[in-house]
Design brief:
Helices cover 68% and strands 0% of the residues. It contains twelve helices and no strands. The protein is globular, with a radius of gyration of 22 Å.
Length: 350
């Protein structure tokens, strides 16, 4: 009897992949109770978003609806992010309710600004963490739309607080806290720098360098740029605003939104995709703070966001095609495609 011929074989695909991190036990033993709670949170998100949107859309509703709706949204964002990150609801839920209640009752500037900042941060980070890995192009686009929808609900929530803020300072604080929170959560998910390969580490450094370059250059041009350059940029912005009624935001187009597309796609194969999504928080944080000042025009911000989302999607799809190339034909015959799974969308990641 002849011995079987030796040769390369594809990896065994009969064993389903498993999530590579331990997760918390379900907080509700009854699946029905868990589904009911999830439905209530979703309904609260819809109600809060609808009520908060009346602060930017004139529909004739009483003004007292706005801030309670914003407080409801803040609580929903806190529940969603805490549950998704595997945190303790018994700690963060009461603290969020306390902040929202005090802001509604006392209406002091400090409490209103704090509530608006908390709403912006929680919405920006949860918009990214509510996504799931996407192996296909359509799946990545779907996750992209979902994340922007959550971030936009945070935008109207922040606007509904109508807090007296300095936009630049408020935006910087929200951006810094959101990045710090996202980095902490990603690190706790086991995506530490020690797990990055050489290629992924290079991608991470490249994106970080691009962030620093864009932010530093824009700040330098505004403060130390020559009069001709500043005037040319101002004229371009004015022309785009008069022609298209909106101006795309470079930070969203070239950093935040493309990172969202690339990150959810990379997560379908490698856990290190979470590090790319850290930079997506920059885009969602800029979006959630775009209507914080009462003088902002909703139509202008809406069109600017639309243009930014379309251009950011196109840039992200180009980067996705370049960074997510499949292995060459020879290697693909030897190794089975890498597939990574994660818990369901509304289940804790850890």
């Amino acid at each position: 009897m002849s011995a079987p011929k030796a040769g390369r074989r594809r990896l065994d695909a009969s064993v389903l992949p498993e999530y590579d991190l331990p997760t918390r036990e379900p907080r509700f033993e009854s699946p029905r109770a868990a589904r009911t709670l999830m439905l209530l949170v979703f309904v609260a998100w819809l109600v809060g978003t609808t009520g908060a949107a009346t602060s930017v859309v004139a529909v004739g509703t009483p003004t007292w609806v706005e801030r309670p709706s914003a407080a409801l949204l803040m609580v929903v964002f806190a529940i969603g992010l805490t549950h998704r990150g595997g945190g303790h609801l018994r700690i963060w839920f009461p603290l969020t309710v306390l902040l929202g209640g005090l802001a509604l009752i006392l209406e002091t500037n400090l409490l209103l600004v704090s509530a608006a900042a908390a709403t912006a941060v929680l919405a920006a980070v949860w918009a990214v963490f509510v996504t799931r890995p996407a192996a296909t192009l359509l799946g990545a686009v779907g996750e992209y739309v979902l994340a922007l929808a959550v971030a936009l609900s945070g935008t109207v929530g922040v606007a509904a607080w109508n807090a007296p803020v300095n936009y630049q300072r408020f935006n910087l604080i929200v951006l810094s806290v959101s990045l710090g929170l996202a980095i902490t959560l990603v690190w706790n998910l086991g995506a530490g720098l020690h797990g990055l390969g050489r290629q992924n580490f290079a991608i991470l450094l490249g994106v970080a360098a691009l962030v620093v370059l864009v932010l530093a250059y824009s700040s330098f041009v505004r403060t130390h740029g020559s009069q001709s350059v500043v005037q040319a940029l101002s004229d371009l912005v004015i022309w785009m605003r008069q022609t298209f009624q909106g101006v795309p935001r470079p930070v969203e187009v070239f950093i935040g939104f493309p990172a969202l597309i690339v990150g959810v796609s990379m997560r379908s194969k490698r856990r290190e995709g979470w590090w790319i999504l850290v930079f997506a928080v920059i885009g969602t944080a800029v979006l959630t703070t775009s209507l914080v000042t009462p003088g902002a025009f909703p139509s202008y911000i809406g069109l600017s966001t639309l243009y930014s989302s379309i251009l950011g999607l196109l840039v992200g799809l180009v980067l996705r095609r370049f960074l997510m190339k499949e292995q060459d034909a020879r290697l693909s015959r030897v190794f089975a495609p890498v597939v990574r799974v994660e818990p369901p969308r509304f289940a804790p990641l850890k």
